[in-house]
Amino acid sequence: MRRSAAAVCLLSLAFLLGLGALPPRVDPASGRDLDNWPRSHPFDHEHMDLRLDVGDMDRPDIRGEVVHRFRAIGRPRASMTLDAVGMRIEGVSMPGRRTAHRHEGDRLKIRFDPPLPPGEPVELTIRYRSPELRDDGVGLVWSPGVGRDRSPQLHTQSASDHARRWAPCFDSPSDRLTTRITLTVPDGFLGAANGALEQTQVEPDGRLSWTWRHDRPHASYLWVFVVGRFETIQLGGEGSARPELDIPAYVPVGTGDRMGDVLGRTAEMIAFFERWTASPFPWDRYAQVICRDFRFGGMENTTLTVLNGRVLDVEPGEEDDLIAHEIAHSWFGNLVTCRSWEHIWLNEGWATFCEALWFRHDAGGDESIYADMVQSWTDEIQATTELRAPQNTSMASRRWSHSDDVYGRPDDAYVKGALVLHMLRARLGPEVFREATRAYLREHRFGEVETHDFRRALERVSGRSLERFFIEWVERPGIPEIEIEISWSEADRLLRVRGAQTQPIDEANPTYTLDVPIAVTMGDGSTRQLTLDLHGRARSASWSLPEAPTRVEVDPEMTIVGAWDIDKPRAWWTRQHSKGGAFGRIRAGRALGLAQATPRGSVGCWCCRAPMGWMRAGEFARSENR
């Protein structure tokens, strides 16, 4: 998911002004731990059959009926609790059992008599009415028609846990189920939802019912429906990069040709990610819909991505980062889903990283495109180098006031998550990293994951122990600040290097374990690979060489993300700028005052955050779902 530019601005401003105070871990009065933990699963929810009668789009008063199929787990169960917010519950029933219910706040509590034996499939029907129409962009959003050419629209935004605002359910990323959604809407309106179109039916009053079946299990934050008047264009089919996949786009009437150009590379991106992951596209189709008043940049609802209306005003190619980001979620987030919100970086970091993979591929393997994007992420995360424990939370932390908060931490799941993936790719090697990722996707297909599941996949394939790496880069906030001084002594033919970690260091924030690569190029063109083991506050080392090097580069593949301050002779910077690799040229250009990185791509999704194109246009100062 990608967040909107406005959301990024507000989050950044709050952080800079010190207004984004984090919730404490311990309640001061009781001493109780305030961390958030995954919910228990007393039931296995298998399927949801939902019918929504939208009624008059000018004055929506929605009636709903949902049938949940589930099984009790572990022991007989006499009650269950579902999530239901802002709606009127009109009835609850179950064949062969008496039921009683009570709706209190955001919880619907239901009792069964007799209790449900474990393992027995049962169906529960809930009738409800008038889910709240909201104007804050989450839950169920109604956009009234304005002017002659703007008809009303309805859309949902279920992430992170807002499906409960339009359908009573067990609203957690740790459970997944199949769905069937039927939307009865006025004639002339499209009702779209997750899955493949099962049928359309004309009702006796002339309205139309659209039924969408999704036969592969997915999490509640990915459920969606949209109602509006749209023009449909087809981006797949014969002649496309994915001729056998249905790839429709629902766009405002009269914009089909233009939007066909803006969204025109969707099939190519899907085909690329299929090859890179060695995993066929896992869903029945990939649809995109442009919604008016959609709050975020994009949201990767399974099979139906919602896009912000700003894509109507861009040129072809300008939103390829957003499009690639949301497509990548089809694997990272939808196929393999974070078990709880503390692990959201496994969704958002991966989708952001996949943007760089796509642009590198699209540029014919040009590593400078990839390097520019990695440098742009580094520039953003450097703004938060003062973060440290315990005052601040890490990228993977159980501390939040509301689950939506995990998308806006200064220790950012999007860019820091992508940088962690880049460091792993650089340290393990691209082929080992890709093979481990493929194994991770195979093992956890249609399942829920935590950070250690990804780590273990990397360890099995690479043979490397990575627990310390994940503790330092995922489970603690911030990045290191690193000073490096390099000099050559002609008298004793020694290359001297001094390194220091200058970020705040205390009992809660030890130094990072940094093995700093140093590439030394000699006059004959040969290169020596040296390492400064900077495991404490400071370290000095020297190496005897037969002659003065022509070039000395620190961490030429950017295996360490940090706020670097490198002091070395200007001649070495000059040669690095002309002869170095993609990362080295960027760093040298900055040191010499000759160039800045020209980032391309997004900085997140909410799901997804504002694309970097907005930053280039100067629309917000601080630099990805959906």
What can you see in these coordinates?
The chain is α+β, with helices and mostly antiparallel strands and 626 residues long. It has 13 helices and 29 strands. The strands form seven sheets. The protein has a seven-stranded mixed beta sheet with strand order 4-7-2-1-11-14-13, with no helix packed on it. The chain has a five-stranded mixed beta sheet with strand order 8-9-10-15-12, with no helix packed on it. Helix 7 crosses helix 8, helix 8 crosses helix 9 (451-462) and helix 11 packs antiparallel against helix 12 (582-591). It is globular and about 95 Å long.
List the topology elements.
Layout: H1 5-16, E1 43-53, E2 63-72, E3 77-83, E4 88-93, E5 98-104, E6 107-116, E7 122-129, E8 133-134, E9 139-143, E10 153-157, E11 176-185, E12 190-193, E13 196-202, E14 208-219, E15 225-228, E16 231-234, E17 248-251, H2 256-262, H3 266-277, E18 287-291, E19 298-299, E20 304-308, H4 320-328, E21 336-338, H5 345-362, H6 367-382, H7 415-428, H8 430-443, E22 447-449, H9 451-462, H10 467-473, E23 481-489, E24 494-501, E25 514-521, E26 527-534, E27 538-544, E28 551-554, E29 563-567, H11 570-579, H12 582-591, H13 612-616
Parallel strand pairs: 1-11, 8-9, 17-18, 18-20, 21-22, 23-29
Antiparallel strand pairs: 1-2, 2-7, 3-6, 4-7, 5-6, 9-10, 10-15, 11-14, 12-15, 13-14, 16-17, 19-20, 23-24, 24-27, 25-26, 25-28
Helix pairs in contact: 3-4, 4-5, 5-6, 5-7, 6-7, 7-8, 8-9, 11-12
